[in-house]
Amino acid sequence: MTALLNTVSIATPVRRRGSISVPTVTLAHGGGGSAMRNLIDDVFVSVFDNPVLAPLEDQARFPLAELSRLGDRLAFTTDSYVVDPLFFPGGDIGKLAVCGTINDLAVGGAIPLYLTCSAIIEEGLEVDTLRALAKSMASAAAGAGVSIVTGDTKVVHKGTCDKLFLNTAGIGIIREGVNLGADRCRPGDAVLVNGLLGDHGAAILNARGDMALSTKIESDCAALHRLIAELLAAAPATRFIRDATRGGLATVLNEAARASGVGVEIWETATPMREEVKAFCEILGLDPLYLANEGKIACVVPKDEEAAALQALRGHPLGRGAAIVGRVTGESPGRVVMNTIFGGQRIVDMLVGDQLPRIC
Amino acid sequence: MKYVDEFRNPNKAKALLREIEKLIARIEICRHRSLSLMEVCGGHTHTIFKFGVETMLPDAVELVHGPGCPVCVLPMGRVDDCVALAETPGVIFTTFGDAMRVPGSKKSLLQAKAGGADVRMVYSPLDALKLARLHPEKEIVFFGLGFETTMPSTALTILQAEREGIRNFSLFCNHITIIPTIKAILDSPDLQIDGFLGPGHVSMVIGTRPYRFIAEHYRRPLVIAGFEPLDVLQSVWMLLKQIAEGRCEIENQYNRVVPEDANREALAAVNLVYELREFFEWRGLGSIDHSGVRLRAAYARYDAERKFSVPALRIADPKSCQCGEVLKGVIKPWECKVFGSACTPETPLGALMVSSEGACAAYYQFGAIRRQKQGTNAA
After folding, report:
1. Which residues in chain A are closer than 8 Å to B100, comparing Cβ atoms?
2. Together in a domain, A90 and A209
3. For residue B105, is it within any domain?
């Protein structure tokens, strides 16, 4: 983490902020000089504004004492965002970069506090686009009660990245007594999700426009830490939570089954999915269980807490569609088995790579 | 989903399964051995695994997953040709998604793409033609693949290109025909198939008549089946009913889509554009006479094989692969020497492990349940 915001030479909170008047980002904005300073000031610092960021040092600094009052462990994570297109129904790469990293902290039981923002920008990107995305990040962070406290920008030659790549790292605090892990699932536990699956994956595929299908599916991109806090309050013995992002619910459950050495049984009829998403997958030969989500978690809770967990999830706006979708079993360790809508059974395995649409 | 859920109704499935049990009780052969029914089409294999149809059927009925996955039967040499075309400077190579991962002798299209070749996934040959209009400075090659189901759409795309005078579009034609393939399977000396589930979408193009020889000459019943799980189950029931009643006919379960007569417009386009190849090489099955088509001389300018130099080398299947025996139903996927060890979906040796319609990949991913159950029963 060096050259954070590359702002060491301009660090003074009272100085006049730089601004930028050209319409597109050029390599000059990555050169370390005043053009870069102006870009960072205009696009990022102006909207991320917060006391930890304000000194614009090479690193963000926060007192440990305050953190340790919140819990007994630090959670630290990082994620990169390369989604194409940058804007999609229900969100954009900025919102995604904030919510995604918050969720990665939250599913470990952490209270998310601070994020970083690293932007790798392809020369030629419109400054207004970058402004809109930084604003979107700021608004997502403000909505979630987290601060973006340090960052970095790089500008790269045309063709060496696709418009904009973002990386956010995040720090959160885990309360004493909260212990979640993929290896903690036990036979009899219930498997829950907090709502309709597959929206994000379908929205992105559709937004790329290759399919010429017209659907109104929107990404479910959302920060889930408050929902998870409600869940943990209602079901303190919760074993495992993970956001069902790339690879979807199928992948998360396989990870849990393998790590815990248990089987997982799910019921197709209990798995909440939008009719449009089902139809979308049907047409393209995709399996919605593997579609990415950006606002959905799978969680495993002991049987005696499943009712409380379900109620807590459903009581939160981001969990209205929550459902118990399956159960942990002692059979077929390491495997996820689905009871199909038709009455048969099939194994839901990990995918090797991406899902590829079928020929006919 | 309306018009879909109706064909996935579990109560109707239970009712059909009871009828299937009753028929089995009437079939003499079932006292000595299980019946082997082959679904020819990869689409059926997909449905069978996706809905767990196999796990519902009584042990007396074994489903054999036939050669009808066009991605799976593509020989390695043809994949090498694809890669060579894709790596030709100035070419945009377009393909259906599931052909991307099929291994060639050196690499797959996915690996060629990673190495810098311009390989793009399309959903229709018309998407490829659109690319040709958008990029007049590039050569667009479409990887034509599939049985009679996809043949007409490729043929119509060629005709469209001709009408519009588009010159930078060509087809790498790997279309194959179903009838010679079924015949090759029937002629195989080690064959043990009691009946066939016939391909639904192929039949939508060719009608039901071309299958008659199967019943008349080879004395095997065939039921053309739809692709929803109830379609498959009802077709199994229809086959068992024929066997129980000592009949041997071509029946059509999928009559909401498949007419008795061929689709004349589709076949007219097919006949106009393609001619039969003397033979075509299949992975696992070897060379089958008249089982593939190529563009007629009149459309040579749209033929990627004539337009570019492709290596066209015959590459033998890996020695350890038993894809052919699996395709013919001689052995089950898991009885293959390399299944799950040297050959997995991550490192497929044989094509049956590549596509999700391939019998081996399907077993590897979805299928262990029934096998586990059988294992338990046997123990």
Report:
1. 356
2. no
3. yes
